[in-house]
């Protein structure tokens, strides 16, 4: 069984052949999510970059589940100092974990983590992540601006079944750029808009995105799963 579920902002859970994981588990402080930290049961936590609204509740979830955190190497190094089991990877790298395969690819953004004392920790390069679950490829684009090598990523990695693409603008691509990135560059079978409406600066109408696309778009409410073709 392969199941991929959206939980608000950029939070995506997945399950494949008994392996459970979550991308960017920003739960505490995320008014859009349907999750509770204590209820999250995962084997792996995948982080696209170090910003607090993506690292989120990683430390608590990892400790609750004895989960492995897979993240850009600098971010993984910081989280290891917090007592977590981590695997640091870098852009271009691919590695299998049980029945899943994780590949880190380029994104254009920034990446740092601010701790409770206000100290800022460099988080390495921001990334997107291509997750292979059996015969399905999931592309979490992460927080990124549009860039032409999204097309190269598509060419080198084969058809993407589902892409999670930010549309919020201000910090990432807005709707117009996300339309071009989806239809002309990434060209997934299905796109799911993410990273919008969590905070006032990123308020957007996902229907405007959907109506302008050639690609099939599934606008998911928190807790809804992707429907695969």
Automatic annotation (TrEMBL):
Keywords from the UniProt entry: Hydrolase
Superkingdom: Bacteria
Keyword Cell wall biogenesis/degradation listed: no
Gene Ontology molecular functions: hydrolase activity
Domain Metallo-beta-lactamase, chain residue ranges per copy: 8-195
InterPro entries named among the record's database cross-references: Metallo-B-lactamas, RibonucZ/Hydroxyglut_hydro, UPF0173, UPF0173_UPF0282_UlaG_hydrolase
Family listed: Belongs to the UPF0173 family.
Protein name per the record: UPF0173 metal-dependent hydrolase CJ229_002680
Upper lineage: Bacteria, Bacillati, Bacillota, Bacilli, Bacillales
